[in-house]
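Dear support,

Our group has been running a series of protein-ligand predictions, and this particular one with magnesium ion is the one our PI (initials K.S.) wants archived with full inputs and outputs. We had some confusion internally about which version of the output was final, so please treat the block below as the authoritative record. The input we submitted was:
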Amino acid sequence: MAFVGRSNVGKSSLINKLCNRALAKVSNTPGRTRVINVFLAGHDRWLVDLPGYGYVAGKPPEAGLWEAMIEGYLTSRPTLRMVFALVDAKVGPTKLDFQMFKWLASHDLPWRIVATKADQVKPSKTVLQKREVAQALGVQPKDLAWVSVHDGTGMRELRAETEALLTA
Ligand SMILES: Nc1nc2c(ncn2[C@@H]2O[C@H](COP(=O)(O)OP(=O)(O)O)[C@@H](O)[C@H]2O)c(=O)[nH]1
Ligand SMILES: [Mg+2]
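Confirmed final output from the archive:
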């Protein structure tokens, strides 16, 4: 299974939490993951931390390199069981998120949206925000995984889902 999303959305933190250990480097500086990190979760099972998109500071990264790397990776893996596409629960989908999701939808890949940093949304606004994010993405709120690695929201459900994928 692979994890995609813009830089700083919480990919590495989520992988760490799912693995219950500090494996993927979590950083405060967006764009740190410039390589494809693969974590072994069984003798033939992997969790894959893909480089974040949308990081432009100073000079932009090599034109097209990111796309070639991610798209090449995702389209050449017959063993890929799921792409978890991350979106910030409070910010909602950005233009680049939409591009990524559209690309995933057009490539016949198994994918699922995970809204991260749910703890950043006020409890009183959660129902409405969930509905808004889901609506923006054209899915039902129930089809959105809504998680926080900080307070554990939704982690039991997501862990069960990933474990089922890893043991299937
Ligand atoms: N409040 C909050 N912050 C988070 C959560 N998950 C990640 N972060 C923070 O977001 C920043 C980026 O996280 P990271 O996992 O490195 O993102 P990546 O670039 O997508 O791999 C770090 O400062 C994390 O501590 C979360 O569930 N809640
Ligand atoms: Mg990372």
